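Appendix B. Raw example, untouched.
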Amino acid sequence: MEVLCCGFPLSIFFIVINEFCERFSYYGMKAVLTLYFTRFLHWEDNFATAIYHTFVALCYLTPILGAIIADSWLGKFKTILYLSIVYAIGQTVLSVGSISELTGGSGNNLAPNIALSMIGLILIALGTGGIKPCVSAFGGDQFEEDQERQRATFFSLFYLSINAGSLLSTLITPTLRASECGIHTKQECYPLAFGVPAILMAVALVVFIIGSKMYKKVKPQGNIMLEVSKCVGFAIKNRFLHRSKEFPKREHWLDWASDKYDKRLIAQTKMVLRVLFLYIPLPMFWAVFDQQGSRWTLQATAMNGDFIVNPILIVIMVPVVDSLVYPLIKKCKLNFTPLKKMTVGMFLGSLAFVAAALVQVQIDKTYPVFPAARQAQIKLINMGEIPATVQFQPQLDSVYVAPKKETGYMTFEASELQSLNISAAILNKIEPLDLLEGERYTLAFKWNTTNISSNLIWDNITSKPENGKSLVRFINNFPFTVNVAMGDTDFGELDPLSVTNYSVVPKPDGSYTINASTPQTACTTVSRKFGYGSVYTISLDYCPENELSITYYEDIAPNTVHMAWQIPQYFLLTCAEVLFSVTGLEFSYSQAPSNMKSVLQAGWLLTVAVGNIIVLIVAGASTIDKQWAEYVLFAALLLLVCIIFAIMASFYTYIDPNEIEAQFSEEEKEKKKDQDDNEKEAEIDSRM
């Protein structure tokens, strides 16, 4: 007898907990994977990105294999069990492969680490991809035919568990990675960052096994995919051979397979193909949706702030939509069918990218202007105590610079600017210039009683720092050499009016102790918070009573558009995800015949893989140089696909596969009964 809890089969709670642990394992590993490639394996960004996307694509292609194994050979339970073991082994191998001590702590020979990491990732892709279509379909199998409402709630809970696992893992594993560990050398702790997800995968496996006796296990019904393929192939071939007008038309082109295959298989194949036909436009939604992990993440690095949005919103929105929005729509007597929900989801996805484009326009307005071809830029810093006038030769334009102040970057034709004439009090100095095209320069100068000292500095920055990083450098305004440090970064000795190289600020929203020292004395002060995306030159000026006096010169302003402005686009995309993805999972299950539910779930997941390929193609082939314009392009494409899908969905007729299969079962019983009666009559006749 089935055990119920709150009206649900008790077995589904084991499945939901299993999914939570598995998703924590997957997203936790995935959250630090690119950093592992670039910082531990020392791969170039482009190669690391290519391997990352290859891994993700493999994770969404292997569901086809898992679905075939489940529906045709092992069944869903054994497929999940065996591939989860493979999955856990893969996570463990990846964790072991990230141990630097495999090569004695040396970073020169990473071949064992790379080999183990690749083996681990292949096993993970096989495991996670193989069980993807089976777990949700296996959960759906636990419900009776009259538990349609409970089954719909299960798919919402199932999707909620996915995002709850994603939320926690994306918060926890980067923190684990940032901690230091190692025997020979202390470095970022990837063995721990990968090890915790491996443990969670083992927990997922144990939880799934504990519920074993409670599960309703539907037996596989032979190699159904092969039978369907043969049926489709025979129908096409038979239709081609009978294409002349002398042969009567049949209601459906698959009916041409009835000469060889039974009506049940043909009906089941029709069900699957009708749904797969609806899947054709769906990859465009995933092409848009998955950019929150790429384009939107890059957009966030050009903004001010640091927080995680989508998993939090999903955890909130799934129960809100399921318990409030849908019942309200039902009370209003609106026929909000699954395909209508998915259509609205696609429309909201399109709106999300319009919102992203509007945010990008505001970000673009804050970007600094860098020199174009044939141009150069120069900024003046007066580090002295009296004002100065700088005259550009041969244009004869002059600029007034107050004490301890700077000008903005001024743009000139590089070949035309030959020298500068610096005037302060009664002193003058000619500074010859030989500027490279497309570069930025800073001229730092100061007056003293006998001369004007100056230093023309090549800034070596042609773009805003990537990934929200901040950069800082120091210039020595003391008349003697000092040793400079900020936090844990030692900039070394610095001669008068010389400058250090730019260094990355570890935490742009933090403050650091700045130290300028000589053998006789040490001066310290606490820095300001630099802000994301900023670039500063800091002048070391005075040291009254060991208190370091400094001046900040802003080379590139920090990001000013706050990440909170991304909330509207994430909110729209989250609503789109709830309407589209949760509904799509349930729709795929409800419209699939009993022996092909995992196959149809795999087809649903395959649309995700195709969507990612679309992004790579569009992004690679696009000649659009403005990011906001690319967002508008994707919004327009999704809106177009949304309209096409709405038209296709209007022709779709919902079916009950169980009812159709029951009719065939009844017909087969009657047919068998008639055969038995005929055999009995024949036997009686033979005796007479």
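End of appendix B.
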